[in-house]
Amino acid sequence: MLILGASGDLTKRLLLPGIGSLVVGGDESDLELLDGLTVVGSGRSDKADGWRDTVAAAFEQVGAEGDRVDAILASTKYVQADPTEPDDWKRLLDGVDGDLVVYFALPPSVVVKVAGILQDIDLPEHTVLAIEKPFGDDADSATELNEELVKVVPEGRIHRVDHFLGQRAALAMLATRFNNRLLESSWNADQIERVEIVYDEKLGLEGRAGYYDTAGALRDMLQSHLLQVLAVTTCEAPAGLDPEHLRDSLAAVLAVTQPWTGAPVFPDTDGPSRRARYTAGEIDGKSLPDYTAEEGVDPDHETETLAEIALEVDNARWAGVPFVLRSGKAIGDPANEIRVTYRPVRFRPDGQSGTGSAEVLRFGFKPPRIEFRFTSGGGDMPFQLDPVEVSGALPKSPVTEYGEVVRGVLGDDPTLSIRGDVAVQCWRIVQPILDAWQRGEVPLDEYPAGSGGPSSWS
Ligand SMILES: O=C1O[C@H](COP(=O)(O)O)[C@@H](O)[C@H](O)[C@H]1O
């Protein structure tokens, strides 16, 4: 596995621990994937000296040890190279013997250049490309990227990485929906009133201005990860377990998804979106500066750190149900869950038909869990109603979300990666919102770090 852009944060924080987590929690077939694996890091800066320690620390972080870890540590190396220089590829591929994974932790403008170079290089017969987000900057650039990449390897060997497809909550959503009669029969607009997919975080910018200040919350989280979560929440049952079956189902539902056009979903706002940015504040006793005072931020960029959008899924199952996607940074007491709110019952014996507290089903991301709130009773009087909540933790796996990514990439199974047409659809869905923001039609509100968002939003 040749990691391009390996000196970045992602490799150290997520990708290498993901490999380690497969050593810890993988089954026999996962372990076989790791036999003979050589990890080569590469970047333009000279990190060769500390590279092995970086890999060792990442493995240690997830408790990975033993012969397999020793073998990976013994063979790993770092190659200082510029992948946009054709001549550097001789060094990058030096010693490659067998199957090859090229893992791109690089911006899209660089990926497209490298893809052009790879078209003229004699790569091993079995080469897989794994590409981190963002996949392009809009539908056109994502289309161009797709066109260049399929000139290198066939679509089935291109993994557009989205670690949210490896999140327990997303996997549980797929497993639960299609295997429980109660849910399966109520999973539609007749029964469900509203769905919210929320991923708020306490974290602020964390030194990532170089990337985040031109991305913002909408591109960083909603256009990519949360749209995939929406797709697994709304798709039709896949025809079977072939990777293309699920990918076809996800593509079909995203093709009919668009910004909400019904009655306003957000108070005081006609449009389907709102955005905001954090100001100075405190989280868990730690001060955070105003976003614009963070190192590397250009105050002229109108970068949002909190985005909320409403979408409609225009098909027979979901027409009329608003799907709200939200993600924010520097949020105190952050929620992260898929929240499904049912409609009130049509008839109640106490004359309160059509009212009452709704049933809410939640799939929590962190910690992974399922909760169900419904109306029950059991007090002194018949029909004395009380809300009840039942909840359960989802089975925990030592394999991290990036472990799932690595499993798919090394095992040549693209089920949990994004197909080219889907990547383009995701840009198509958010483009009208990005355009409205660009035209200044949606104000950039403010919220103090550590709060729940702008006070005017509640
Ligand atoms: O890809 C990203 O995801 C993280 C949130 O996911 P997590 O699994 O690390 O909780 C987000 O903080 C980051 O901004 C985004 O680029």
TrEMBL record:
Pathway: Carbohydrate degradation; pentose phosphate pathway; D-ribulose 5-phosphate from D-glucose 6-phosphate (oxidative stage): step 1/3. It comes from Amnibacterium kyonggiense. GO terms for molecular function: glucose-6-phosphate dehydrogenase activity; NADP binding. This is Glucose-6-phosphate 1-dehydrogenase. InterPro entries: G6P_DH, G6P_DH_C, G6P_DH_NAD-bd, NAD(P)-bd_dom_sf. The keyword Oxidoreductase applies. The keyword Oxidoreductase applies. The lineage of its organism: Bacteria, Bacillati, Actinomycetota, Actinomycetes, Micrococcales. Residues 3-167 form the Glucose-6-phosphate dehydrogenase NAD-binding domain. Keywords: Carbohydrate metabolism, Glucose metabolism, NADP, Oxidoreductase.
